[in-house]
Amino acid sequence: MSRHFDTGAAPHFPPHATVGGVMRQVLYALAPGIAAHVWFFGTGVLFQILLATLFALGFEALALKARGRPVGVFLRDYSAVVTAVLFALCVPPLAPWWIAFTGMLFAIVFAKHLYGGLGGNLFNPAMVAYVVALVSFPQAMTAWIPTTDVAVHGLGPLDTLLTILGGRPVNDLGWDAVTGATALDAIRTAAASGQPIDAVRESSAFGQLAGRGWEWIAGWYLLGGAWLLYRRIISWHVPVAVIVTALLFSSITWLADPATFPSPVVDLLSGALVLGAFFIATDPVSGCTSDRGRLVFGAGVAILTLVIRRWGGYPDGVAFAVLLMNMAAPLIDRYTRPRIYGHG
Asked: pLDDT tens digit string along 30-68?
């Protein structure tokens, strides 16, 4: 005798977080830093974000279509948008449009889809894009606007857009008149010429604590990073490891030779170190998965960044440090994975 029993659906719970939801939270957390970027460097930052986003979405759609994947589903996960925004925040505001085009081509097609798409990439796509652009177009990638010139020359949105799209001189001034060195550039130049840091510390590139404008931008990124920690979008291991290790390493070199090496505050608040600590090195795909591995990964990013700043060929080394640690991430995970329950 057989009986039929009514059965209900399995008690499956919907996921608490989706890829699109996580990426939107990252964009929300970047908003204060973007606003600070615009305040100090003008509307060129917004145009760079717009250009990079358009190119990223275009390359994403083409790659998905070529791979036979659903275009609409993956375009709505905002991963390409986050890559574009992070890249745009690392390039000079007046960089020509082909910088964004080249960067997004390598980020989306080469660094992401040639590895199988989201979740399969070995390297952080935004940092691949930045390094390719920096190596290919070094002059354009180092043409930063001094923060004082934004107010002095009045770089309006139209002039900025025409400069980015067509290379038109702003207010009839040449590139040399509207670009200048950042604090990290000034420090590197002083070290190469044998000058003490105090000789350049009074220049317009420096503010009260670190690089002029950059100290405030780093503070707002720190606030955005705190939001990600509060929302449990990222864990504390990588950003804490990056910041603590950077402060310790910089303190050692600064105490050993304060005339040659910058103070820990200057190192932390100048350049992209805070941005990298909370928004780049915390990439769950190209980083480590174990908690101890994340601590090692973050410490490695900090040490390599400061080593490149002091003895390397570039004033800021966050992108190179992240990519080098991306290569080491599988090996780090192998030796830092937690013990399996029941096994020795």
From this structure: 999 999 999 988 899 999 999 999 999 999 999 999 999
Torsion of Cα atoms, 159 then 160 then 163 then 169, to 10°: 50
3-state secondary structure the chain: CCCCCCCCCCCCCCCCCCHHHHHHHHHHHHHHHHHHHHHHHCCHHHHHHHHHHHHHHHHHHHHHHHHCCCHHHHHCCCHHHHHHHHHHCCCCCCCCHHHHHHHHHHHHHHCCHHHCCCCCCCCCHHHHHHHHHHHHCHHHHCCECCHHHHHHHCCCHHHHHHHHHHCCCECCECHHHHCECCHHHHHHHHHHHCCCCHHHHCCCCECCCCECCHHHHHHHHHHHHHHHHHCCCCCCHHHHHHHHHHHHHHHHHHHHCCCCCCCHHHHHHCCCHHHHHHHHCCCCCCCCCCHHHHHHHHHHHHHHHHHHHHHCCCCCCHHHHHHHHHHHHHHHHHHHCCCCCCCC
* CB 300, CB 256: distance < 8 Å: no
pLDDT in tens, 268-324: 999 899 999 999 999 999 999 999 999 999 999 999 999 999 998 888 899 999 999
The pTM of the full predicted model, rounded to 2 decimals, is 0.89
- The tokens describing 155, both together, are 């770089």
Rounded CA-CA distance 317/333 in Å is 23
Report d(CA 295, CA 95) in Å as an integer.
35
Question: Residue 284's Cα: distance from chain center in Å?
Answer: 14
Cα distances from 241 to residues 6, 30, 169, 245, in angstroms, run 54, 20, 43, 6
The C-alpha angle with vertex 155 and arms to 153 and 159, in degrees rounded to 5, equals 125
167-199 burial, b if ≥16 CB within 10 A, otherwise e? Answer: eeebeeeeeeebbbbbbbbbbbebbeeeeebee
User: What are 334's two structure tokens?
Assistant: 């192998």
Q: How many whole angstroms separate alpha carbon 184 and alpha carbon 262?
A: 9
Please say whether the beta carbons of 94 and 143 come within 8 A: yes
The two tokens of residue 287 are: 């980083």
